[in-house]
Amino acid sequence: MEVLPDQLIWEILRRIKKTLDRNSASLACKRLYELEREQREFLRVGCGLNPANSALTSLCNRFKNLAKIEIVYSGWMSKLGKQLDDQGLLILSQLCPALTDLTLGFCTFITDVGVGHLASCTNLSTLKFNFTPRISGCGILSLVVGCKSLSSLHLIRCINVSSVEWLEYLGKLETLQELSIKNCRAIGEWDLAKLGFGWRRLRSLQFEVDANYRYMKVQDRLAFDRWQRLSVPCESMVELSLVNCLITPGGGLACVLGKCRALERLQLDMCVGIRDSDLMNLARESVNLRSISLRVPSDFSLPISMADPSRLTDESLKAIANNCSKLETFKISFSDGEFPSFSSFTLNGILLVIHRCPIRLLALDHVYSFTDSGMEALCDANFLGTLELTKCQEVTDEGLQLVQHFPCLRNLKISKCLGVTDAGLKPLVGIQKLDSLTIEDCPQIGEKCAHGIAKNLFYRQDLSWMF
Prior knowledge:
Layout: H1 6-14, H2 19-26, H3 30-39, E1 42-45, H4 52-62, E2 68-72, H5 86-95, E3 101-105, H6 112-117, E4 126-130, H7 137-146, E5 152-156, H8 165-173, E6 178-182, E7 204-208, H9 221-229, E8 239-243, H10 254-257, E9 265-269, H11 276-285, E10 291-296, H12 314-323, E11 329-334, H13 347-356, E12 361-365, H14 372-377, E13 386-390, H15 397-400, E14 411-415, H16 422-425, E15 434-440, H17 447-450, E16 454-460
Helix pairs in contact: 1-3, 4-5, 7-8, 11-12, 12-13
């Protein structure tokens, strides 16, 4: 070991990914210990950090070049000792000058004071808070004022972050490229307008509203006017994910959908108020779109004031088919309350997208309009490599047997489908056309019959969903 050059040992250590293996290697000799100490850039700690502050001090003194730290207290109980507190974040800010990426999860002892200590971490570019209930908007503001290199911010279940002056400040800096806000009850879609010119550099936006608080924060006229005046194009946006959002015609996030020229990945999950015109505008602008995931709410999940006939129709799919020539992933899902007669999209609309776009992954969930005729049409889908059917109850054995004629299919998943039985799989046995076959919770398909169809089989039978 002593004759090996440092560069070679560094390369060996670099290829050891598991922390336990790295720890074991560092104990082999003093030289390995010293080199591993210098090379370690990532540290993940949690409930085993006890006593928290002194243990963290020891770790930071040992590993001087830490750039990424994750502190996650998932599953913590009081008998495991005191959590990391504000003093611990002060230790981080003083002993980790190279820190660029920090994740704090389930850290219930940390307050705005501790977050303020992080303002001295001038190299910090990525910050993730997951359920840190004692942090407020004031603490976030003090942080972003100091960390002017911040390009990625994730706030998940931060229930006390209400004021959004920090968002306005980040908008003026125009450094933010990735923003994720999930289930922060006091932050609504109308607050996002405060990002202002920051929309120009934003590459990824994930915004998820707690479904239980979806209708509680009502926009005021000033917020509506702010969105109306927002003429900044979202020219850098590559990924957009909206969950449980209210899409207001002519305002709010509807203003964003038609301005994302570079958009490649779109997810709209249970977004109330989305209209054909919104998706048509988006399809015309976002010609580079490669992935679309739509989960449409049923009439029974809407408040009475929102239950109007302005549901999505095949006009949206027609616009996508005509403009998004690079689309490869296409996912459609309806909420559990949807009935066959209420489905927004017809079979013809879905097939139009499949035939005009190079769809490689098709996932349909609760789509009652997709029948055996749809399976027959997929025999001409020359790019389709992965098909996922969930609760597609109109697909029967006759349609399932057609899988053997799909030209490029390699992965098939069938979940909670009542219309398919062992008889539908028998013609596929021995063909070995598929690389993987997944069968989940289909009461009429036995595991024995599923063998010999694909190189890899995953089978699960849990029928609790039926009761």
